[in-house]
Input
Amino acid sequence: MYLKKLRLSGFKSFADPVSLEFSEGISAIVGPNGSGKSNITDAIKWVLGEQSIKSLRGKKMEDVIFSGTEKKQASGYAEVVLILDNKDGSLENYPQEIAISRKLFRSGESDYAINKKSCKLKEIHSIFMDTGLGKNGYSLISQGSIENILASSPTELRNIFEEAV
Amino acid sequence: MYLKKLRLSGFKSFADPVSLEFSEGISAIVGPNGSGKSNITDAIKWVLGEQSIKSLRGKKMEDVIFSGTEKKQASGYAEVVLILDNKDGSLENYPQEIAISRKLFRSGESDYAINKKSCKLKEIHSIFMDTGLGKNGYSLISQGSIENILASSPTELRNIFEEAV
Amino acid sequence: MTEQFKANFIKLQENFTRIFSILFEGGRAYLEFTDPTGVLEGGIELVAQPPGKRLRHISLLSGGEKSMVAIALLFSFLEINPSPFCVIDEVDAALDDHNIYRYISYLKKVAEHNQFITITHRRTTLEVCDNLYGVSMSKDGVSQLVSVRLTDYA
Amino acid sequence: MTEQFKANFIKLQENFTRIFSILFEGGRAYLEFTDPTGVLEGGIELVAQPPGKRLRHISLLSGGEKSMVAIALLFSFLEINPSPFCVIDEVDAALDDHNIYRYISYLKKVAEHNQFITITHRRTTLEVCDNLYGVSMSKDGVSQLVSVRLTDYA
Ligand SMILES: Nc1ncnc2c1ncn2[C@@H]1O[C@H](COP(=O)(O)OP(=O)(O)OP(=O)(O)O)[C@@H](O)[C@H]1O
Ligand SMILES: Nc1ncnc2c1ncn2[C@@H]1O[C@H](COP(=O)(O)OP(=O)(O)OP(=O)(O)O)[C@@H](O)[C@H]1O
Ligand SMILES: [Mg+2]
Ligand SMILES: [Mg+2]
Output
């Protein structure tokens, strides 16, 4: 199983729909300061159910919706779709391609879906139950957080460990 | 007035006496990870009276004394001497060269001195009273602290401001 | 719970000790319980000793050394609990050229079984990447994708 | 106290706004009191808007943008309260090549009146330095000074 595609629309600085196709191995994302690279990391954390707006560098959940610039209107909603390739069948009972999506309207209405069928966050968590993704902090390392891991207290380190294994 | 010379002996990873001569303009310190560059920043903060061992990345004040390696004995004391060039007379009532030093023995005995005459920390602070050095966090920026400035709360930012001007 | 927890801890401990000495080319590191008698409640402490140095508290390590220890811990977790993919955002910012090289050599090995998406400004890291994606800010303040070739970063 | 404080605040405000738009080549930034009526007790908030972008809370800025804002603030303080010397330890770690160039151009200007000692791994920053000092770890784990030439960092 691997990450095949990521589609962002109205998420943070990605006002216009954008789609990144990935293949296995190591992919690098490059670009100048402030161009939107870490917003992609935030989009992946968000679609997988991240609840803490602080860890998405915002103040209120609405901060993930494109809030406009001098030349462009603000967006009405943010949507991220993450598509996993499951051709190797590592996830039984799931199709060859799994599309996980999250949408948030300015009104506060939000919606998760798996393969376009609305679902609860619990169901998204259960997809990754036996893998290292999502629930533990170890597979999604945001900018600056690598140093914080060492600054955690023994109890915090224990909690990270319990979630990760 | 400018920093003319810095002498370290037994301070952190500088077991053997080392002396850096500086001139005006911009000086760069380079070297591999873990070679001792930031220990030089810590030495300057320490000799100017830094009281918080946490801001010197240690747990107890003794952590600033060279604690030995597989091949070398631990030191009995740490000493840093900072020499300022005052030829331009910007500090009235002081000689052309001012040597500020701080020494700490493993026993806990410590000693500040100005031009080899023992003094209190207050006297060192008074040298820099009307300059930007020492009392405010703005002239000694340790590694990683540039990001922290922006993370301070409005009240913290106000305190930094009050000290700085 | 106890048996499983203990088994996982030992596995993590082994990984961390091994990967640390690969990344640092020597030295030793391990994890220990703050209260060995109360394994189920106590915290976990990290001990790291770069080659040629004494054992000291990790707060005294340098910026680059701390990043390398954290990277070793990350790879140790991934080994126990592989993830369909892993996103790493500028973990190489504090590393010197020598350490970057050690980090990417190990990354290449781990990437045989895990997919990695890494955000970086460092040229050395780009050399091991299979694919490259460029992001830029358009005139009207909106992020867009641009095609990039490795040679642009020469 | 009030008069002096207010005068200094206005001076800092002016510096920060000017230096920010030099470093970002546009945009605007300022400092404001959280409680304009209670100037003596309230806190100070920092507002920064890079060119072409909307005004947003500074927590939403990128890693490199945050470093540049903090650098602008540092230079603003130094202008009000010059210091006999200033030590800067790896403030350029998160900057891309374009921003490093802007940072060192301004640093060169400020260095006409202040002495700077900077610790860096970035080649571009070394190009504006007048003197270069090398530090290395000897075999027995002790720091020592070594002579370095700029060409070593080619
Ligand atoms: N809701 C939003 N609407 C529009 N723009 C936003 C929104 N949230 C964040 N931004 C913008 O996104 C930019 C930050 O992008 P990001 O952190 O991804 O940069 P980056 O490419 O990672 O840069 P660096 O190399 O400095 O880390 C900021 O300039 C910020 O103003
Ligand atoms: N009291 C001490 N005795 C001996 N060595 C010490 C002492 N305190 C710190 N050290 C050592 O100093 C080293 C850290 O040095 P420092 O932080 O100056 O590195 P640096 O050159 O800034 O590296 P980087 O480029 O990674 O930031 C550590 O390896 C640490 O073990
Ligand atoms: Mg970023
Ligand atoms: Mg350092």
